[in-house]
Design goal:
Two copies of one chain form a homodimer.
Chain A (H helix, E strand, L loop, with lengths): L4 H17 L6 H8 L3 H7 L3 H21 L8 H18 L1 H11 L2 H11 L6 H11 L8 H20 L7 H15 L2
Helix pairs in contact in A: 1-2, 1-4, 1-6, 2-3, 4-5, 5-6, 5-8, 5-9, 5-10, 9-10
The structure holds a DNA duplex.
DNA sequence: GTCTTTTGATTGAATGATCATTCGGTATTT
DNA sequence: AAATACCGAATGATCATTCAATCAAAAGAC
């Protein structure tokens, strides 16, 4: 993970362009132009367009986890930890819609498939999983597979974020709070 | 909406290819080959690739609504109607994963934006909205904007369908039932 | 400190592939 | 014979990627 100025600039340009125009609407020539870099330079940092997209996604994922960790209390009550994660997710994506658009496109494209499978095999003790493991042990939530719990917890949030970004709803902090709480209702045993 | 054999064949080929390779990985030449048709023929039925993709989506949406209507009782209790819709959605997408992959890619691409906005303006009395309107009037569900209700109701289902299709969970009818019920828990006031 | 040398970074025009679309013509239907 | 459906090679654009040439900076030599 080297991080020259130009490397980051290229990733940033990729995220912006892909978010707006999709993978196929984002030629390397445009990425180069927006990053203020020559086309050839991209290939100094990334093997191919696919590799660039993969790296851009990894970059976003790191940023997202970092932003969730801000103000997160590992020792607090389970429901409060859940609410924090939910709020952080929505707030962050609403503040940076491009990140959301890129990530969602990635997840629903052939790129994302392999990536998601890898993550499932081996990720045990990350921040989020452990909230649900604790909740399960305390008998607070339903006895369902972890992935189903994930779906109930975050599925609705992704949708309202998308609706907000596309201007179909206007989220405010009250509505966000109520929605995250409703997600918790879905989990409660 | 004419429906020649070839027109349908082209749409079918488009859905299959896009589901597997994405929009940018589905050249018209391949669509033609898979549909058993000459490249030029596609342009007899569709103005452009964009128009073809738009029509393919519309086709899928009609099919989906038709399949939900099967066995649907307009007069039954609200919760039962909701459970029926949820089950139908999951069953249908699991039976035809290509449909799901196409639709999700569409929704998260620049194509889908306009389409979604149009639908929001003017759709009042469709099958699904009226379930939630009835539920609201009976005081059964939370007082939240319709789009948030949609998100809570169907967001989790979309995620577990994706996980199932990618082989990350194995859904059976028990798990589907429990998940749809949990979605209802999120809605309950 | 100044002058080479070497290494890595950067450039952007050139290359070759691939793609959406067109069109002149052939088959099929009316 | 008129109209419509269909074909597939040809066209022109666009794109990812390469590479020979320039530039920058660090390392060594004296």
């Amino acid at each position: 993970m080297e991080s020259t100025d130009k490397r980051i600039a290229v990733i940033q340009a990729t995220i912006e362009l892909v978010a707006e125009y999709g993978f196929h609407g984002s030629p390397m020539s445009q990425v180069a132009k927006r990053a203020g870099v020559a086309a050839g330079t991209i290939y100094h940092y990334f093997e191919s367009k696919d590799a660039l997209i993969e790296s851009s996604y990894a970059h976003l994922e790191e940023e997202l986890i970092a932003s969730i960790k801000q103000g997160y209390c590992e020792e607090g009550p389970v429901q409060e930890r859940f609410m924090h994660i939910g709020r952080a997710l929505v707030d962050n994506f609403i503040a940076f819609p491009m990140k959301f658009c890129f990530i969602e496109q990635f997840h629903n494209s052939p790129y994302g498939v392999a990536s998601r499978r890898e993550k499932m095999l081996g990720k045990k003790n990350d921040l989020i999983s452990s909230v649900f493991e604790d909740a399960r042990q305390q008998g607070l939530i339903k006895e369902l597979p972890l992935l189903v719990i994930f779906a109930l917890a975050f599925g609705p949030l992704l949708i309202i974020i998308r609706d907000h970004i596309f201007g179909l709803v206007q989220l405010d902090s009250f509505l966000i709070e109520e929605t995250v709480r409703a997600c918790w209702d879905a989990l409660k045993s």
